[in-house]
Design goal:
Blueprint (H helix, E strand, L loop, with lengths): L7 H16 L3 E3 L7 E5 L5 E7 L6 H22 L5 E6 L17 E5 L10 H6 L3 H4 L6 H27 L5 H19 L3 H4 L3 H5 L5 H4 L7 H22 L1 H22 L8 H17 L1 H22 L7 H18 L7 H23 L6
Parallel strand pairs: 3-4, 4-5
Antiparallel strand pairs: 1-2, 2-3
Helix pairs in contact: 1-5, 6-10, 10-11, 10-12, 11-12, 11-14, 11-15, 12-13, 12-14, 14-15
C-alpha cells in the first residue's frame, strides 16, 4: 500500500494539481488528442492556462514540437473564450537533460519551468511572483498512502463543491418573473388598444426629448398588433424561463428592464418614428445568455455557438426589413451583455467585472441620451 505513489513524478503531478485546483480555482479542461499532460484554465489569473506535462521529452526537436502544439491549442482556447490576451505556464516534470531550455526561455506568451521536485519551483521567479504560496502549499507531512488520500481528497472536495454550485445554478426554478412579464405585456396590449393609448406611451424621440421620459420604459410593454404580441410573448417564455433560472429572479428582471431601456435609447438616437415592443428586452436576454454561456462554456459552449448566436444573427437580418426597429434590437443586445456583467453571474463574475459592467452600461445609455437631448442624434 505504501507504494501507491512510488513514482516521484506522479507525486509531484498530484501536488501541483491539488494546488492549482483547490487553492487557485483552476478548472481542468478537455483537449482532444492530447495525452500525458493536463490543461487547467482560470480566466481570472495572469496565467490563463497552466499545463502540467508528464510526457518524456528527450531532445530539443521534441520540445520544439511541444511548443508548436501548445501555441496552436492556445489560439483555439483564446478564440473560444473570446480572450484578447492569453499567457500560459508550462510545467514539465519529465524532461531529459539533453533538452536545452535556454533556447526556449524567450517564447512569447508561454513561460516554461522544469520541475523535478518542489524546491525547483523557487528557481523560477515568474512562478513565485504569480503564486507566492505555491511552495508552502505543496509541503505535506503525510507520506505514501496518507499523502495520496490527502491529495485526492482535497481535489475531490473541490470538485464536489463545484458540482453542487453548478447544480444550484442549472436546476430549473419556477419562472415567476417570466410569467409576470408575459401577463403585463398582454394586459398592456389590450388596455392600450382598447383606450387608444399606444401613441401616448410609445417610444418617440420628439416626445421623449420634450419631457415624456416614461416612454423609454412604457414602450417596451406595448405592441403594434396581436401577432407582434404573441411572437414576443412566446420569445419571452422560451428564453426567459431558462435565463430566469440561471440568473435568479431579481437579476433577470433587472437585465430585462435595462436591456429594453438601452434598446429604446439607441432607437431614439437613430430614428424619429414611433416604436413599441419587447424586442429590445428580448434581444437583451439573448445577449445575456451569450454572456452567461461564456462563463459556463464547459456546459453551454455548443448551445451558444450552434443555437443562440445563429438565432441572434438571423433575427438581426430579419430586423433589416422596413417597419422594424432594428436599432432597438441592437441596443437591447448590447445593453443585455453589459447589464448581465453589471448584475453578475453567480459564482463566476468578479466584483471588478461587475463594476466594469456598470460603467459600460452607464457610458452606453448616458452617451446616447446626452447626444439625443443635445441634438447630436441621427437625422
Amino acid at each position: 500500500m505504501e507504494e501507491m505513489i512510488a513514482n516521484p513524478n506522479d507525486e509531484l503531478v498530484m501536488k501541483l494539481l491539488r494546488y492549482f485546483i483547490s487553492e487557485k480555482n483552476y478548472t481542468p479542461i478537455v483537449i482532444r488528442g492530447v495525452e500525458g499532460e493536463i490543461w487547467l484554465e482560470n480566466m481570472e489569473e495572469d496565467y490563463k492556462i497552466v499545463r502540467i506535462v508528464s510526457n518524456y521529452i528527450h531532445n530539443d526537436e521534441q520540445f520544439e514540437f511541444d511548443l508548436f502544439k501548445t501555441k496552436k491549442l492556445m489560439k483555439m482556447i483564446k478564440k473560444k473564450t473570446l480572450s484578447f490576451k492569453m499567457n500560459a505556464l508550462s510545467i514539465f516534470v519529465n524532461l531529459n537533460d539533453n533538452v536545452n531550455l535556454n533556447k526556449f526561455e524567450d517564447t512569447p506568451k508561454i513561460d516554461i519551468a522544469q520541475i523535478n521536485e518542489e524546491d525547483d519551483l523557487k528557481h523560477y521567479n515568474f512562478i513565485i511572483d504569480k503564486f507566492p504560496d505555491i511552495t508552502k502549499e505543496m509541503t505535506f507531512t503525510e507520506k505514501g498512502v496518507e499523502l495520496f488520500m490527502k491529495l485526492t481528497g482535497d481535489i475531490s472536495k473541490k470538485n464536489e463543491g463545484e458540482a453542487k454550485m453548478n447544480e444550484e445554478v442549472f436546476s430549473m426554478k419556477r419562472p415567476i418573473i417570466t410569467y409576470a412579464l408575459i401577463i403585463i405585456n398582454v394586459i398592456a396590449y389590450f388596455l392600450s388598444n382598447m383606450f387608444g393609448l399606444v401613441d401616448d406611451f410609445a417610444v418617440n424621440r420628439f416626445m421623449i426629448t420634450h419631457g415624456e421620459f416614461y416612454r423609454l420604459f412604457t414602450g417596451m410593454f406595448l405592441h403594434a398588433n396581436l401577432i407582434h404580441l404573441l411572437f414576443n410573448c412566446y420569445a419571452i417564455y422560451i428564453i426567459g424561463m431558462q435565463l430566469e433560472s440561471f440568473l435568479g429572479k431579481a437579476k433577470y428582471l433587472l437585465v430585462y428592464l435595462m436591456s429594453g431601456f438601452a434598446g429604446n435609447c439607441l432607437s431614439i438616437f437613430m430614428s424619429t418614428g414611433y416604436s413599441v415592443g419587447a424586442s429590445g428586452a428580448i434581444f437583451g436576454l439573448l445577449g445575456s445568455l451569450v454572456y452567461f454561456g461564456y462563463h459556463y462554456r464547459v456546459y453551454l459552449e455548443t448551445v451558444v455557438k450552434s443555437q443562440i448566436i445563429p438565432l441572434i444573427i438571423l433575427n438581426l437580418l430579419i430586423g433589416m426589413a422596413p417597419g422594424i426597429d432594428n436599432w432597438g434590437h441592437i441596443g437591447g443586445l448590447i445593453g443585455g451583455v453589459f447589464a448581465t456583467m453589471a448584475v453578475g453571474v453567480k459564482y463566476k463574475t468578479t466584483k471588478f467585472e461587475m463594476v466594469n459592467g456598470v460603467i459600460l452600461y452607464v457610458i452606453l445609455v448616458g452617451a446616447l441620451l446626452f447626444m439625443t437631448f443635445t441634438g447630436m442624434f441621427i437625422k
